Amino acid sequence: MKMKKTVKGLMIGTLAVGTVLGGLLISKNFSSASDTPTIQVPVKQNHENHEQLLKQTLDLAKEGKVITSEEFGRYSSKKSIIAKWGEPDKDSKNGILKYSKHATQFYIGDSNNYKKSVYLLETTDKSYASVTYDEVKRSKALGKGGEYKDRNTAYIIYAVGENDLRFIFSVDKKGKISNLKYVEVNGPF
Question: pLDDT per residue over 122-178, tens digit each?
Protein backbone atom coordinates (compact mmCIF):
# COMPACT_ATOMS: atom_id res chain seq x y z
CA MET A 1 0.00 0.00 0.00
CA LYS A 2 2.88 2.37 0.87
CA MET A 3 4.46 1.59 -2.52
CA LYS A 4 1.29 2.64 -4.37
CA LYS A 5 1.17 5.95 -2.46
CA THR A 6 4.86 6.58 -3.14
CA VAL A 7 4.51 5.86 -6.90
CA LYS A 8 1.35 7.97 -7.03
CA GLY A 9 3.15 10.82 -5.23
CA LEU A 10 6.12 10.62 -7.60
CA MET A 11 3.83 10.70 -10.63
CA ILE A 12 1.92 13.71 -9.33
CA GLY A 13 5.18 15.49 -8.46
CA THR A 14 6.66 14.76 -11.90
CA LEU A 15 3.48 15.96 -13.60
CA ALA A 16 3.48 19.17 -11.55
CA VAL A 17 7.15 19.91 -12.29
CA GLY A 18 6.62 19.16 -16.00
CA THR A 19 3.62 21.49 -16.12
CA VAL A 20 5.51 24.33 -14.42
CA LEU A 21 8.59 23.92 -16.66
CA GLY A 22 6.43 23.60 -19.75
CA GLY A 23 4.59 26.77 -18.81
CA LEU A 24 7.88 28.64 -18.37
CA LEU A 25 9.14 27.49 -21.76
CA ILE A 26 5.91 28.46 -23.48
CA SER A 27 5.75 31.86 -21.78
CA LYS A 28 9.24 32.68 -23.09
CA ASN A 29 8.22 31.90 -26.69
CA PHE A 30 4.90 33.72 -26.70
CA SER A 31 4.02 37.33 -26.12
CA SER A 32 1.77 38.22 -23.22
CA ALA A 33 -0.53 40.18 -25.53
CA SER A 34 -1.63 37.14 -27.53
CA ASP A 35 -1.01 33.47 -28.08
CA THR A 36 0.94 34.01 -31.28
CA PRO A 37 4.65 33.21 -31.37
CA THR A 38 6.98 36.17 -31.37
CA ILE A 39 10.06 35.60 -33.45
CA GLN A 40 12.61 38.31 -33.99
CA VAL A 41 14.46 37.86 -37.25
CA PRO A 42 17.55 40.00 -37.78
CA VAL A 43 17.05 42.50 -40.62
CA LYS A 44 19.97 41.09 -42.63
CA GLN A 45 18.60 37.55 -42.38
CA ASN A 46 15.12 38.77 -43.31
CA HIS A 47 16.54 40.57 -46.36
CA GLU A 48 18.50 37.44 -47.39
CA ASN A 49 15.31 35.36 -47.11
CA HIS A 50 13.46 37.90 -49.24
CA GLU A 51 16.26 37.86 -51.82
CA GLN A 52 15.94 34.05 -52.02
CA LEU A 53 12.17 34.38 -52.35
CA LEU A 54 12.54 36.94 -55.14
CA LYS A 55 15.04 34.69 -56.96
CA GLN A 56 12.62 31.75 -56.70
CA THR A 57 9.82 34.02 -57.96
CA LEU A 58 11.93 35.05 -60.96
CA ASP A 59 12.84 31.45 -61.81
CA LEU A 60 9.20 30.35 -61.70
CA ALA A 61 8.08 33.38 -63.76
CA LYS A 62 10.41 32.20 -66.53
CA GLU A 63 8.23 29.08 -66.64
CA GLY A 64 5.03 31.16 -66.49
CA LYS A 65 4.31 30.14 -62.88
CA VAL A 66 3.97 31.67 -59.41
CA ILE A 67 5.16 30.09 -56.15
CA THR A 68 1.72 28.79 -55.24
CA SER A 69 0.61 27.45 -58.62
CA GLU A 70 2.43 24.10 -58.37
CA GLU A 71 2.68 22.61 -61.88
CA PHE A 72 0.17 25.07 -63.36
CA GLY A 73 1.21 28.16 -65.29
CA ARG A 74 0.40 30.22 -68.33
CA TYR A 75 -1.34 28.12 -70.96
CA SER A 76 -2.50 25.50 -68.42
CA SER A 77 -6.01 24.39 -69.16
CA LYS A 78 -8.97 25.29 -66.98
CA LYS A 79 -9.98 21.64 -67.09
CA SER A 80 -6.62 20.37 -65.73
CA ILE A 81 -6.61 22.90 -62.87
CA ILE A 82 -10.14 21.97 -61.81
CA ALA A 83 -9.33 18.26 -62.15
CA LYS A 84 -6.48 18.59 -59.62
CA TRP A 85 -7.61 21.43 -57.31
CA GLY A 86 -11.38 20.99 -57.55
CA GLU A 87 -13.93 23.71 -58.14
CA PRO A 88 -12.72 27.28 -57.54
CA ASP A 89 -14.00 29.45 -54.69
CA LYS A 90 -17.67 30.34 -54.94
CA ASP A 91 -16.85 34.06 -55.18
CA SER A 92 -14.74 33.54 -58.34
CA LYS A 93 -15.81 35.86 -61.11
CA ASN A 94 -16.37 34.83 -64.72
CA GLY A 95 -13.02 33.99 -66.34
CA ILE A 96 -11.16 33.71 -63.00
CA LEU A 97 -10.39 30.56 -61.04
CA LYS A 98 -9.81 31.77 -57.48
CA TYR A 99 -8.33 29.33 -54.95
CA SER A 100 -7.98 31.04 -51.56
CA LYS A 101 -6.48 27.98 -49.90
CA HIS A 102 -3.67 28.08 -52.50
CA ALA A 103 -3.46 31.92 -52.46
CA THR A 104 -3.70 31.74 -56.26
CA GLN A 105 -5.92 33.10 -59.02
CA PHE A 106 -5.84 31.94 -62.62
CA TYR A 107 -7.25 34.21 -65.34
CA ILE A 108 -8.72 32.23 -68.22
CA GLY A 109 -9.02 33.59 -71.79
CA ASP A 110 -7.59 36.78 -73.31
CA SER A 111 -7.61 38.88 -76.46
CA ASN A 112 -5.95 36.00 -78.36
CA ASN A 113 -9.01 33.89 -77.55
CA TYR A 114 -7.37 31.36 -75.22
CA LYS A 115 -10.80 30.75 -73.70
CA LYS A 116 -9.87 27.52 -72.01
CA SER A 117 -6.34 28.26 -70.84
CA VAL A 118 -4.53 30.53 -68.37
CA TYR A 119 -3.06 33.82 -69.57
CA LEU A 120 -2.36 35.42 -66.16
CA LEU A 121 -1.67 34.12 -62.63
CA GLU A 122 -1.63 35.95 -59.31
CA THR A 123 -0.44 34.91 -55.88
CA THR A 124 -1.09 36.55 -52.54
CA ASP A 125 1.09 34.07 -50.67
CA LYS A 126 1.86 35.23 -47.12
CA SER A 127 5.61 34.77 -47.65
CA TYR A 128 5.50 38.07 -49.59
CA ALA A 129 3.69 40.03 -46.84
CA SER A 130 6.83 41.69 -45.42
CA VAL A 131 8.64 42.28 -48.73
CA THR A 132 9.08 46.00 -49.34
CA TYR A 133 9.09 48.07 -52.52
CA ASP A 134 12.75 48.97 -51.95
CA GLU A 135 13.75 45.31 -51.54
CA VAL A 136 12.19 44.45 -54.90
CA LYS A 137 13.65 47.55 -56.54
CA ARG A 138 17.17 46.81 -55.23
CA SER A 139 17.10 43.03 -55.65
CA LYS A 140 20.26 41.66 -57.23
CA ALA A 141 18.37 38.57 -58.42
CA LEU A 142 15.78 40.63 -60.29
CA GLY A 143 17.99 43.35 -61.75
CA LYS A 144 16.45 46.58 -63.05
CA GLY A 145 12.71 46.67 -63.59
CA GLY A 146 10.27 49.21 -64.93
CA GLU A 147 8.53 51.27 -62.25
CA TYR A 148 5.05 52.74 -62.33
CA LYS A 149 3.12 54.56 -59.63
CA ASP A 150 -0.26 56.22 -59.56
CA ARG A 151 -2.47 57.41 -56.69
CA ASN A 152 -3.49 53.92 -55.55
CA THR A 153 -0.95 51.43 -56.87
CA ALA A 154 2.77 51.00 -57.50
CA TYR A 155 4.24 48.32 -59.77
CA ILE A 156 7.67 47.04 -60.57
CA ILE A 157 7.68 45.04 -63.80
CA TYR A 158 10.34 42.72 -65.21
CA ALA A 159 10.49 41.13 -68.66
CA VAL A 160 11.25 37.46 -68.06
CA GLY A 161 11.53 35.53 -71.32
CA GLU A 162 8.08 35.56 -72.88
CA ASN A 163 6.45 36.61 -69.60
CA ASP A 164 6.11 39.73 -67.52
CA LEU A 165 6.67 39.46 -63.77
CA ARG A 166 4.88 42.15 -61.78
CA PHE A 167 5.14 43.08 -58.13
CA ILE A 168 2.08 45.08 -57.08
CA PHE A 169 1.93 47.37 -54.03
CA SER A 170 -0.84 49.58 -52.64
CA VAL A 171 -0.29 53.31 -52.20
CA ASP A 172 -2.05 55.09 -49.32
CA LYS A 173 -3.57 58.59 -49.41
CA LYS A 174 -0.28 60.13 -48.25
CA GLY A 175 1.62 58.46 -51.12
CA LYS A 176 3.31 55.86 -48.91
CA ILE A 177 3.85 52.50 -50.62
CA SER A 178 2.79 49.42 -48.63
CA ASN A 179 4.52 46.07 -48.47
CA LEU A 180 3.96 43.73 -51.38
CA LYS A 181 0.28 43.07 -52.06
CA TYR A 182 0.53 40.38 -54.75
CA VAL A 183 2.70 38.97 -57.53
CA GLU A 184 1.50 38.46 -61.07
CA VAL A 185 2.84 36.59 -64.10
CA ASN A 186 1.38 37.57 -67.46
CA GLY A 187 2.23 37.73 -71.12
CA PRO A 188 4.02 40.93 -72.19
CA PHE A 189 1.89 43.87 -73.28
Answer: 999 999 999 999 999 999 999 999 999 998 999 999 999 999 999 999 999 999 999
d(CA 166, CA 2): 74
CA distance 150 to 93: 26
180: CB partners within 8 A, 6+ apart: 128, 129, 131, 132, 133, 136, 167, 168, 169
Q: What is the pTM of this model?
A: 0.73
Cβ-contact 188, 158 below 8 angstroms: no
Q: Are 74 and 164 in contact (CB under 8 A)?
A: no
User: How many Cα atoms sit within 13 Å of 48 on the Cβ side?
Assistant: 5
